[in-house]
Amino acid sequence: KTEIASVDNLSTKEKGYAQAVDLLKAGETVAFPTETVYGLGADATNEDAVRKIFEAKGRPQDNPLIVHVGGVEEILAFTTYIPEVAGFCIDAFWPGPLTLILPLKPNSLAKNVSAGLDSVGVRMPEHPVALELLRRLKRPVAAPSANRSGKPSPTNAGHVWDDLNGKIPFILDGGATGIGLESTVLDCTSDIPTILRPGGVTKEMLEKVIGLVNESKPTDREEAPRAPGMKYAHYAPNAPVYLIDSSLEIVQEAIETLHKEQKKVALIASEQFQSVAVDYFFTLGKEEQLEEAAKRLYEALRNCDETDADVVLAPVFSKNGVGSAIMNRLEKAASGNWFPL
Ligand code: TXA
Ligand code: MG
């Protein structure tokens, strides 16, 4: 029931874009690639269209959506002003994997986009397909990741199909996404700009441009989740995930313990662990190449569901640079649990 059109293919490209634009104008949803993950888009000014996103994903209504634009000028239509730090970030990082939380102009977007908050998350994606679509449509597009709520975000069109086939009319297929983790979310409405969700644009990169940046810690999030989405369980395969020390010996011992309990084990880890005797091994690439690990993580988590593994082990990464975003997602997938319990 869900149609897929490849835009890498010259003969279907033009038709694909035209169909996507027509569907969005008609108040339907369309999945499309961005440089981070695939998004499920709808016209951000159309409340009925936006409702279809929540329905298809099974997403809680209190979790606001990110609005995507094809040009910077577009944001003036739905924000009251652009804080100075936001201006610097736009110059330095757009188009790119950085979502800015800005003050929302009342009654400018569909109410359900921002879930009743007086702020709105905005970004200009850096993917040629996303930009082409947004520039043809000339309207802001509300788009969360195109997965069923709680699942890892989709990094290729097949993942979107697996989660949403029959629930959405159309997928624009632009191949695998580049970064593989969702955008950094930066709150520009607080006195000190605050990272609500770590991503491809790191704290170090932001501080070079705007000076001091805060990072909301998991404990802050539990007390008062400022990015409402961060309080929900996320990214989890069916089998429980456990974080574990990044040591060959400790991992091998853990697997032996689990095998004695007749449990099958999947290991999601960098190549240095490939010699470990385990039932299923999903590599995240070379240990020092964090960008590569980010790119492969969600597919690895999804692959666990194709196995009969009872337990998933994930040796931890350093939290430097993109490692901070990788660990943020792994901690969520594991609900913070370490092995042994
Ligand atoms: O890379 C991405 O950001 C992808 C692609 C499709 O652009 N989108 C994405 O959207 O990850 P989503 O809905 O899965 O995550 C949006 C996050 C959630 O944690 C949400 O709570 C937060 O951004 N958010 C959105 N609007 C907000 C607001 N006004 N204030 C605080 N947090 C907000
Ligand atoms: Mg999401």
UniProtKB/TrEMBL annotation:
Residues 14-201 form the YrdC-like domain. The keyword Phosphoprotein does not apply. It catalyses: L-threonine + hydrogencarbonate + ATP = L-threonylcarbamoyladenylate + diphosphate + H2O. The keyword tRNA processing applies. Its EC number is 2.7.7.87. ATP binds at residues 59, 63, 143, 145, 153, 197, 235. GO terms for cellular component: cytoplasm. GO terms for biological process: regulation of translational fidelity; tRNA processing. It is found in: Cytoplasm. It is an enzyme of class 2 (transferase). Pfam families: Sua5_C, Sua5_yciO_yrdC. Its main location: cytoplasm. One of its GO terms (molecular function) is L-threonylcarbamoyladenylate synthase. L-threonine binds at residues 36, 68, 123, 183. Keywords: ATP-binding, Cytoplasm, Nucleotide-binding, Nucleotidyltransferase, Transferase, tRNA processing. Belongs to the SUA5 family. PANTHER family: SUA5, THREONYLCARBAMOYL-AMP SYNTHASE. Required for the formation of a threonylcarbamoyl group on adenosine at position 37 (t(6)A37) in tRNAs that read codons beginning with adenine. This is Threonylcarbamoyl-AMP synthase. It comes from Psychrobacillus insolitus.
